[in-house]
Design goal:
By secondary structure, this protein is α+β, with helices and mostly antiparallel strands.
Length: 1459
């Protein structure tokens, strides 16, 4: 059994072992050294781990190092209590707990004794020493009235111990031998009057029980008690164990010691104590008390409990009562349970049975003990302070009120934004209809302005036409050259593209989620790097979630009847799970360099080298992973049987029990630490995320087994772990059991599955491309008759165009391969679709324009092609450069995936444009030559029919020209389109704030991945939140008491210290997402450094040094030449002096907690403190952390709101530490494994707005320059694209697509594709020389509509449909749904809304272009052909504008039947 726990219970419940010697002088609580066991297991170190991001950041799910949440359930386990698993074997004298040589004959001293009474009533107290001189008793004088600056006690501290305090007698006096029931020393029965104490005993009692001494001192200064010198020494030693945990809270310690002081020495014991049973001692045969009855009031018991229930154990993130209340633990403890446990001999600590009787009032001669209890929020005396906030919630300053939770905006109970948008739409619709009726529905409503032909063009129009003429001239010459020398162009272009593409061999593709989604300069990434560098990365975690196939509940017989426990408690099921667990942990192995690797080689063993067992979080570790322990059954006095379920029930209440009484086996795991049930069970929360104080663990429906593996900053050191994890996954994939349904994961699982997903969707992408290629090949051709089918087809040309698109992508990838820019899978998956959409559209425009434009007389084929290129290339240049510039500026994004995508996409579009106006033009020339020579497509050696084909409009062209355009631009169609699209826009704006932000982790996995099941089970059974570390950067001088007070959480620490602020945040867990107070290495180091220092019982202190080499000596080391550390406590006895703080801190971090020193910091803080050297080679504390946990997090919003809250807390702490400083010096930041993945969501809307804003502005500026300074046209294009993006976002809400990095990439791509839908139509509108906006809109539709519809919409539609059948949900949702939305919404706006908008508000024709056009017409009329700059006759006005009607100009649009 654990020495500390045994002593704790023994000392706490009953101070009755005695030594014949007086304990040494000390002002510090001491403990009695019990028999030492020769076999023990230490209780616990803390586990720095917790879980993978198991609930991993949604994205990561290739978990990061030391992850846990994102990949694991468990929280780091922090403890420091040792425990023994075997009975004590130390002493050969069972009746004597403290051998004489352990207690030197020196009296104790205390800081209390120096202030108890005025100096003339108490002789001077010598300084702290191991050898104090004997003092004479005080003179028989009455104590003077208490003075505030001198008296130790407040006036309200006098005790009402007995209503007849002058009548009671003793119940015992002295010790008489070994109790037959326990073998431990018991007291002699005695019912006489109290006896006087000698001066040495008075001094000892005054130091230990100052309140009792003040209460029982007679007016003449005499002190009579029912205890002798030996009993007082034993009481001091035994109380020291309990006070070691409770002294953090002085008021609690003061209240706690009352009952033991009065039980041991009160001169009127018979008032509240009864010797219930007396037997002869087994050694001396003298009578001893074996059963004692103690009467106390419920008020006293509950008040003492209330003052102590919040006292913390920093190393475990638990309360001190979790180890002091036996099987009840801290959650289930109460005042009566605490006292009852301390008095029960079944705990194997109490020397004899103590039956506490909880009376409400006096009955007969018995007056229940009812000492005055001070609330923990008040100081126990004038010389001390109240308990700190961390140890007493009532001491906490009232936290500032949190801002109220925003209420949803409603109007009349309906969604407020929706109502506002509906009203805006109604107002807009009404205004538009009125204006339309007034201004547009008139016989001469069309804006005909022939006077524009006579007006002088302004400067912008002249400059614009010069740019246009220059581009047209240049592209005409370029197109002619490419058509004249096609093979030369193709060879040169192919060589250049090949050279660029070779760079692919240098390409590095990253699948690491951290590198994909977190900017290297982002705060979370920098903080992660800082944490990993200073403390090592978070643990690797492997997890199994096991659900029983048989869901029948398990009956369990109890004294209260039959209880039904969850299906996981079926013994057969548990045994089979244990067999699986033991095979994995003991027999499964991987290989590295032909050497086997087992779990023990890589696992986290917090108590190593004392205990090398691996940390395994599993309920089966409550049985030390031993099947035999599951079969233990112990009969009870009630004719029932305690079995494995009783053991589990007890361990659930207190996992820290070193020896659980129902089966007499430990609750502690085989690795020496506890298994907290919420980390090892699932399905007991009933859909709630609040663990609460009484979780229904018995209703669990799943077991969770977590294996914690070491991780390293140096990635080469994780090779063994990777190899073992690979074998684990392979084994689990092939494992099946009829009783189990298992979900599993490993640290490498996410990355492995992402890689497999990308490889698995290659076939889907290939099919998609094949469908698009087939369509392109067929749609490019113009078919006149069946006999010329193979002549007029464009299969070879289409194939060449697709190859050009792919070459542009490979060239872009190659260039960045040379440059060392890492690629991502997003690039491979998205960019080919983007470039194909743009490239195919351009191909259709070039080919269809060439087919539509007849060759002029005497015009050669190359000139014909050059003229076509000069006509359409400016429009293609406008679209391509707008898109490329849009993407290059999008590379300003900090998000690596978006940054890389933008770079690769921008360059791919530029290369595609260059290849299309060169190589593709050459392919057109070769195909035209083939067609003119009547050669078959593909088989060009075969000559077909020489019958001339005839050119006619295709079906699509006819439909648009004769049906679609007239209907769309009719008097009813136009206003209807405006109203429909404006309503669509307002409805989309209304739902924008409702779009979910985040990415559920399961979406990143293939549908058939084992991780899908794991994520499902994780969501259903997750019962613990991820750990969070508040990292205090270096620069803090911890030897400075002021700085200590700003960090620590114990008494005398600041009310706004680091520990206190985190504690207060944990009280508001539902808003702050902080579940527990933080562990504090500083507080535990203070306790460790003074533990057993100057112990009166001779117990070994924690801090010892080897005198030979000045190395650390563990307290358990009795062989080496060791001596106590030279630590001088501060005056309050609670802290080491500053001069020794840094000297012994490394010893604390090196000390493995054990039975002799439960406060050792190696297990809990071995990685938590980074000790560095300054320029003078002196040791300083560098970075350190304070660990706590988040609440249970399940959704993306939970994760990023937890991050936001933690940053708010750390920001407040940093501000507090820097108060009064001109420049901030100290910094605290929070770190958890999932932060790096979810930080993007804190600013996702801002990042989205920034990226899209840059894209839109870029499109606007480039459009202005390349469109011939058509500002109005460019503005209309930009606004239409903005509408497309807005409506696309609305579709994301209605179709359940969340906003995240993947969807942001696609939204940026949508801007680029939307340019294709809009710019060609707008450019055709601007180039039209017709007289009205309506006519020019009609020209734009019939000229570019077929190319846009067939080139983008139809081409992409077939390929997109295939994505719906992809194995990955991320393809189905973020590619299929978004791509489909981009194509359909973009096409509807480009081919429906934009022509109508232009018919109303399109810019007027450039007047300079009108004049040039008129000059050309005149020149061709008079001279057949002449240059633009030649002199021509002045144009004459042939038609009176005032008499011109729209129906005359465009009868097919304005016929009477459409009015």
């Amino acid at each position: 059994m654990s020495r500390v726990s045994r002593e704790l219970s023994q000392g706490v419940s009953f101070p009755y072992h005695y030594s014949s010697h007086t304990p040494p002088c000390s002002s510090h609580p001491t403990r009695l050294l019990p028999p030492r066991s020769s076999h023990f297991t230490t209780l616990l170190p803390s586990l720095r781990s917790s879980l993978p991001t198991t609930r991993l950041p949604p994205l990561r799910f290739s978990l990061p190092p030391r992850s846990s949440f994102p990949t694991t359930l468990l929280p780091p386990l922090r403890f420091s209590l040792p425990t023994t698993l075997l009975p004590p074997l130390r002493s050969s004298h069972p009746t004597t707990l403290l051998p004489p040589h352990h207690a030197p004959p020196t009296p104790p001293c205390s800081s209390y004794s120096t202030t108890l009474l005025p100096s003339h009533h108490a002789p001077p107290i010598p300084p702290r020493s191991s050898h104090a001189t004997t003092l004479l008793p005080p003179p028989p004088m009455s104590p003077p009235p208490c003075k505030q600056d001198f008296c130790l006690f407040d006036r309200g501290l006098m005790f009402t111990v007995s209503a007849a305090s002058g009548e009671g007698t003793c119940v015992w006096y002295g010790s008489c031998g070994a109790n037959p029931a326990t073998g431990k020393t018991a007291n002699c029965p005695y019912n006489g009057p109290a006896k006087p104490l000698d001066s040495t005993a008075v001094l000892s009692l005054t130091a230990a029980c100052p309140e009792l001494v003040q209460d029982i001192m007679t007016p003449d200064g005499q002190i009579r008690t029912c205890c002798d010198n030996t009993q007082i020494g034993a009481m001091i030693s035994q109380m020291a164990i309990g006070l070691g945990f409770l002294k953090r809270c002085p008021t609690c310690a003061r209240n706690f010691r009352q009952i033991f002081c009065h039980m041991t020495c009160n001169p009127h014991q018979s008032d509240f104590m009864v010797a219930k049973e007396i037997q002869n001692a087994t050694d001396t045969k003298k009578p001893v008390i074996t059963d004692l009855e103690v009467h106390v009031t419920n008020t006293f018991v509950d008040s003492v409990y209330s003052s102590c229930k919040d006292v913390a154990m920093p190393s475990t993130n638990e309360k001190a009562l979790s180890v002091m209340c036996g099987l009840w633990g801290a959650y289930y403890c109460s005042g009566q349970r605490w006292f009852t446990y301390m008095g029960d001999i079944s705990n194997q600590y109490t020397p004899f049975q103590i039956d506490y009787i909880y009376d409400a009032k006096a009955e007969g001669a018995i007056v229940p003990f009812n000492g005055t209890v001070i609330p923990c929020s008040q100081a126990p005396n004038n010389q001390s302070q109240a308990c700190s906030c961390v140890d007493c919630e009532d001491s906490c300053p009232k936290p500032p009120p949190l801002p109220p939770v925003p209420e949803p905006f409603t109007i009349g109970g309906a969604d407020g934004i929706m109502v506002v948008m509906a009203i805006c739409f109604l107002i807009f619709a009404a205004a538009f209809i009125v204006l339309y009726v007034i201004y547009f529905v008139k016989p001469h409503s069309i804006d005909i302005d022939l006077s524009a032909r006579e007006e002088e063009p302004n400067y912008l129009e002249k400059l614009g036409i010069q740019i246009e003429e220059f581009l047209q001239k240049y592209f005409t010459l370029w197109g002619t050259m490419c058509a004249e020398h096609p093979w030369t162009v193709l060879i040169v272009g192919g060589l250049i593209a090949t050279g660029l593409s070779v760079g692919i061999i240098f390409l590095k593709v990253t699948t690491d989620p951290v590198e994909l989604w977190a900017s290297p300069t982002s705060r979370s990434r920098l903080e992660k790097e800082y944490y990993d560098r200073n403390f090592e990365p978070f643990y690797r975690t492997e997890m199994l979630i096991i659900r029983p196939v048989n869901d029948s509940k398990v009956p369990h017989e109890t004294p209260d009847g039959i209880e039904m426990w969850g299906p996981v408690y079926n013994k057969t099921f548990l045994k089979e799970v244990l067999k699986l667990q033991n095979f994995i942990t003991n027999e499964l192995y991987g290989e590295v360099d032909n050497e086997p690797v087992v779990l023990e080689d890589i696992c986290f063993s917090p108590l190593s080298p004392i205990n090398k067992n691996c940390t395994i979080m599993s309920v089966l570790n409550f049985f030390q992973n031993d099947e035999a322990n599951l079969d233990i059954e112990v009969p009870t006095p009630l004719n029932l049987t305690n079995n494995y379920i009783d053991h589990l029930a007890s361990c659930y209440r207190n996992p820290l029990q070193p020896l659980e009484p129902s089966l007499s086996i430990p609750c502690l795991g085989e690795y020496g630490g506890p298994v907290f049930p919420y980390t090892a069970l699932g399905g007991f929360l009933n859909e709630t995320q609040v663990l609460g104080k009484n979780p229904a663990y018995k209703n669990a429906t799943a077991l969770v087994i977590t294996l914690v593996v070491n991780n390293y900053y140096n990635k080469s050191m994780v090779e063994k772990a990777m190899a073992w994890e690979k074998e684990l996954i392979t084994f689990m994939k092939n494992y099946s059991h009829p009783l189990m349904d298992i979900a599993y994961t490993s640290e490498r699982s996410i990355q492995d599955e992402v890689q497999r997903m990308s490889e698995g969707d290659v076939l889907t992408i290939a099919i998609s491309y094949s469908i698009m290629f087939l369509y392109i090949s067929l749609a490019l051709g113009g078919y006149s008759r069946f006999s010329r089918l193979l002549i007029d087809s464009k299969i070879t040309l289409g194939l060449g165009g697709v190859i050009i698109v792919l070459i542009s992508v490979t060239s872009s990838v190659g260039v960045y391969g040379y440059a060392g820019v890492k690629a991502t899978l997003v690039i491979i998956e998205v960019i080919p679709f983007l470039v194909l959409a743009v490239g195919v559209d351009n191909m259709f425009i070039l080919v269809q324009t060439y087919q539509r434009e007849s060759r002029r007389p005497a015009e050669m084929r190359s000139e014909h092609i050059g003229r076509v290129v000069g006509q359409v290339a400016p429009s293609i240049l406008l679209a391509s450069f707008s898109e490329a510039a849009c993407f290059f500026l999008g590379a300003l994004s900090d998000m690596p995936a978006v940054h890389a995508f933008a770079l690769y996409a921008g360059l791919a579009l530029l290369i595609d444009f260059l290849l299309q106006i060169s190589c593709f033009v050459s392919l057109i020339a070769l195909d035209a030559k083939r067609q003119e020579e009547n050669r078959f497509d593909i088989c060009c050696c075969v000559v077909g029919s020489n019958k001339e084909g005839y050119t006619h409009d295709g079906v699509l062209q006819k439909f648009i020209k004769q049906v679609y355009a007239p209907c769309l631009l009719s008097r009813i169609g136009r206003p209807l389109v405006i109203l429909v699209f404006s309503g669509w826009l307002f409805s989309s704006i209304a739902v924008l704030p409702k779009i979910d932000v985040g990415l559920d982790q399961e979406l990143s996995m293939p549908e058939d991945s084992y991780m899908q099941k794991y994520f499902d089970y994780l969501h259903r059974y997750l019962s613990v939140g991820p750990p969070v570390y508040f990292v205090l950067k270096g620069g803090v001088n911890f030897t400075n008491l002021k700085m200590q007070n700003e960090i620590c959480g114990t008494v005398q620490c600041d009310s706004d210290s680091l520990s206190t602020q985190i504690y207060i945040s944990s009280i508001l867990a539902n808003r702050t997402y902080i579940a527990q107070p933080a562990s504090s290495w500083l507080d535990d180091y203070m306790d460790w450094s003074l533990y057993n220092l100057d112990s009166p019982s001779g117990d070994v202190p924690c801090c010892r040094i080897n005198v030979e080499d000045n190395s650390f000596c563990p307290a358990s080391d009795m062989m080496s030449n060791c001596t106590d550390c030279n630590i001088q406590p501060m005056d309050d006895g609670l802290r080491p002096d500053p001069s020794s703080f840094m000297e012994y801190l490394p010893f604390f971090l090196e000390d493995v907690p054990n039975e002799d020193c439960p406060k050792g910091g190696h297990a809990a803080y071995g990685h938590a403190v980074n000790i560095i050297k300054d320029k003078r080679n002196e040791s300083l504390v560098g970075a350190s952390y304070f660990m706590t946990y988040h609440t249970i997090l399940k959704t993306s919003e939970d994760y990023y709101e937890a991050l936001r809250s933690a940053r708010s807390v750390s920001s407040n702490i940093s501000k507090t530490l820097n108060q009064g400083l001109d420049n901030p010096v100290y910094e605290v930041f929070p770190y958890s494994v999932f932060y790096v993945f979810y930080e993007q969501y804190l600013t996702m809307w801002q990042d989205t707005g920034k990226s899209l804003g840059i894209s839109l502005v870029t499109v606007f500026i480039v459009s202005i320059v390349l469109s011939g300074l058509e500002i109005m046209s460019s503005f209309i294009v930009m606004m239409t694209i903005l509408m497309i993006i807005t409506n696309l976002c609305g579709m994301m809400y209605w179709w359940g697509i969340s906003l995240n990095a993947v969807s942001l990439v696609n939204l940026i791509m949508a801007v680029g594709i939307s340019v294709e839908f809009c710019s060609h139509i707008t450019h055709a509108f601007a180039m039209s020389m017709r007289d009205t906006r309506l006519q020019r809109s009609y020209d734009a539709i019939i000229t570019m509509g077929p190319s846009v519809l067939s080139g983008i919409t139809f081409t992409k539609f077939g390929g997109i449909i295939v994505l719906a059948f992809a194995h990955s949900k991320i393809f189905q949702i973020f590619y299929f749904r978004l791509y489909l939305g981009i194509v359909l919404i973009g096409a509807s706006h480009g081919l429906v809304f934009l022509p109508v908008l232009l018919s109303f508000f399109g810019p007027r024709t450039n007047r300079c272009r009108l004049q040039v056009q008129h000059c050309r017409m005149m020149a061709e009329h008079f001279h057949g052909s002449m240059q633009v700059n030649e002199e021509v006759p002045e144009p004459q006005q042939l038609i009176d504008a005032s008499s011109l009607d729209a129906s005359i100009i465009q009868p097919e649009i304005h016929s009477d039947d459409q009015h």
